[in-house]
Amino acid sequence: xxxxxxxxxxxxxxxxxxxxxxxxxxxxxxxxxxxxxxxxxxxxxxxxxxxxxxxxxxxxxxxxxxxxxxxxxxxxxxxxxxxxxxxxxxxxxxxxxxxxxxxxxxxxxxxxxxxxxxxxxxxxxxxxxxxxxxxxxxxxxxxxxxxxxxxxxxxxxxxxxxxxxxxxxxxxxxxxxxxxxxxxxxxxxxxxxxxxxxxxxxxxxxxxxxxxxxxxxxxxxxxxxxxxxxxxxxxxxxxxxxxxxxxxxxxxxxxxxxxxxxxxxxxxxxxxxxxxxxxxxxxxxxxxxxxxxxxxxxxxxxxxxxxxxxxxxxxxxxxxxxxxxxxxxxxxxxxxxxxxxxxxxxxxxxxxxxxxxxxxxxxxxxxxxxxxxxxxxxxxxxxxxxxxxxxxxxxxxxxxxxxxxxxxxxxxxxxxxxxxxxxxxxxxxxxxxxxxxxxxxxxxxxxxxxxxxxxxxxxxxxxxxxxxxxxxxxxxxxxxxxxxxxxxxxxxxxxxxxxxxxx
Length: 503
Known about the structure:
This protein is an all-alpha fold.
């Protein structure tokens, strides 16, 4: 409704001086990060799947770990790494060499940061596809005198297109959602524009218009991808697994270096930089307020994860039990929130919650205060909207593996649907539910734009604290809250990996 009320007074200024810059920068980031993520994600997935070389198995999981580090934290780490007197200069000085001057605080540096942080989306999707790729296709191509390079570019890549596009779509969503890294590197994007209109100019109307334009761009990208795919098929009937090749020793070492390079750039260097900073600043940062912030972050992430699980289970089973005929379309629409940047969701929730609060105060009096706006309720609800798909998809996949005959047998014995769910289906869904909860928990811990816009004034999170340190040019103090965010991402992933392997 706010969109149809007209733009704010500063909308003309944004259109004349800023909007084209927002559009150009956002599109450049989207295209450049997509291409780099494809190069890193597809190549590492193919090498780790197709070839045998030293440390291949540890690298398969190390290549995923950059996802545990929010892109804005990686941006802080590299800014300090390349800064004057930073770690790179100290390393060169140790060997009595002159360090190269690298300016990473620009849009090209931001492309590098976002790409090494987000390429695992493409890597995970492509590796899962390559592991199930048929050996018969490659053998048939080799019988036609086709070499390995030609096989890869003419056969493997076209067939892997759904996996590549699926990973790239996630990369695009995260690039357009980024605020912390773009703000710190001084790159104007649609997300930074929304913050500027809301907090800088204090005009929610202009922020709404920018959010609407960003949402339109995202839905256009999704529509174009679906239009290009149409009814093309990418399946193979053969089940013969792909055989790993054993190259020469020199080739194995080169594959080891090239495969490990994205993990080194995206995880090892930022973590080592943060550990170094933490060793210098822990005495000033590690205080009672830090532990309070950590507890609040863990509590909010836990509540949001549980809320997402409850909503996801309700949507899934309400549509399955057909209590409401329209619930299936509602569930499909509800999980689109992950495609919407956090800043856009924050704008969409802030306005109606403020209107509801005003309506309640007119009825019950102003003494009741704001019950929704600027409270944990609105923040958790925003997290549910944003990350419901993260919870819904693993649970839906887990439910598909449960044979219908089990539930039908329970119903035939006179048990109700709820009784059947808790006695039969819930124990079988435990792994999927726990997986979904861990994934949501990690995403909420990392989320910055949405939290900045909607968090209560007396509530602090680790992500916001790290952002505030960086904004105040206290870049070293970002280390401890950043490391704790990374730890809460890495440990659950390791636990989830063991749980899935055990099951």
